[in-house]
Amino acid sequence: MSTAFAACGEYAAALFDSGLVGPDERRRLAEFLQKTPAAGPKELSSFLVQHGMLTRFQAEYVLEGRVDQLTLASFQLIDVIGVGSMGPVYKAKSKKDGGWYAVKIVPRRNVMNLGTVAEKVKALKRVRHPRVSALVNIGASGDKIYLVWPYLEGGQRLDDLLKKHGKFPPRQSAQIALQAASGLLPYHEQGLFHGLLKPTDVLIGADRRVRVLDFGVGFLLTSERGKSILDTMTNGKKLAKGLDCASPESILDSLARTPAGDQYSLGCILYRCLTGQYPFPYDNPVKKMLAHQNEYPEPIRDLSPETPAPLADVVDRLMEKAPEDRYGSIAEAIKELQAITTNARAFTGATPKSKPFIGPAAPAAVEPPPERLEKQEAPASQNGNTAWLWILLACLAAGCAIGWMSWWMMQQ
């Protein structure tokens, strides 16, 4: 047996032991090795990827001798689907139910007790809403913690859409906020909250439906002080990405996350959708944090004149500095958003229903140039002058008639 074949056999053995390939794949592997005895691990890897038995991501892990890292408890990692604020996110398949999940892996704290959040995870499982992808599992593997959510196929992140279009028309912005708020409502009613809501956590599907992602991470930052599963100090730099939508109270105290904080974050997202910028678009993170505490953003209607005043008022209420000054519950915000979105007169430039839910941002209202205004007003001005001329002539004629009659009577 050649050295290459022996190495290839070790590669195949690692695949068999890991459970990455099943009985059918094993037979095809055996046939490949018999037909190409000189093949090495790289050739075998290419064969597996080409025939859909492994993803390129998995093949690279196996070649690097990290096959054991492709399995976390009952979840088999299939591919990388992104990098979140606290770590990479993988597409995974459950060996138990065959379902697809999104698995996020984060560093494990030295002082950590999974039992401190076990009840909260159970509470999340008891509440289900089609517009929310909530945490369904949490576990530890070595020095890592893995968090599991249902995997959502397709769609685009709100953050990516905003980068592409700049901003959205007021009606679409209000609809996005309304759908997100509707998803949050059943959780808020149970005292549950997102805690880190931002545009990257909002997914808009091809069906135009809005879904809130990563629900549950905020809980992992609000356990008993000193026993939080996630180390907020270690992840401070990565979490700074969420400062644009962070509530004032959560900035002062990372454990101060509540349903009222979700309201503030939703207000920041809606502000971004309407104006094309965040409430405090500073590059300096310290200045941004202080602004959330002490400053008020530029009025929405100064940046987006087409925004209906009632919608701007909703954003202002959501973004009140003190939690008690926001809505008593997100249900109140939903009621106002529903009233606004169903009032066609509120949106002078409303997008017809036949057009896509997400499309190019509507152009801002532009005042016509002075010369155009003069041309538009000229007909009205001419009509007015003509009317006054006829009145003047009528008055002169009446005066002449009265004068003539007076002269005639004096001659009699």
Can you walk me through this structure?
The chain has 412 residues and is an alpha+beta fold. Among the domains are: 1-70, no CATH class; 155-346, Transferase(Phosphotransferase) domain 1 (Transferase(Phosphotransferase), domain 1), CATH 1.10.510. Helices cover 46% and strands 13% of the residues. It contains 15 helices and 10 strands. The protein has helices at residues 3-18, 23-35, 41-50, 56-63, 115-126, 158-165, 170-188, 236-239, 248-252, 259-275, 285-294, 300-303, 309-318, 330-341, 370-411; strands at residues 71-72, 75-83, 88-94, 100-107, 132-134, 137-141, 144-150, 156-157, 202-204, 210-215. It has a 6-stranded antiparallel beta sheet with strand order 1-2-3-4-7-6, with helices on one face. It has a 4-stranded mixed beta sheet with strand order 5-10-9-8. Strand 6 and strand 7 (144-150) form a beta hairpin. Helix 7 packs antiparallel against helix 10. The chain starts with a helix and ends with a helix.
Q: How would you summarize the topology of this molecule?
A:
Blueprint: H1 3-18, H2 23-35, H3 41-50, H4 56-63, E1 71-72, E2 75-83, E3 88-94, E4 100-107, H5 115-126, E5 132-134, E6 137-141, E7 144-150, E8 156-157, H6 158-165, H7 170-188, E9 202-204, E10 210-215, H8 236-239, H9 248-252, H10 259-275, H11 285-294, H12 300-303, H13 309-318, H14 330-341, H15 370-411
Parallel strand pairs: 5-10
Antiparallel strand pairs: 1-2, 2-3, 3-4, 4-7, 6-7, 8-9, 9-10
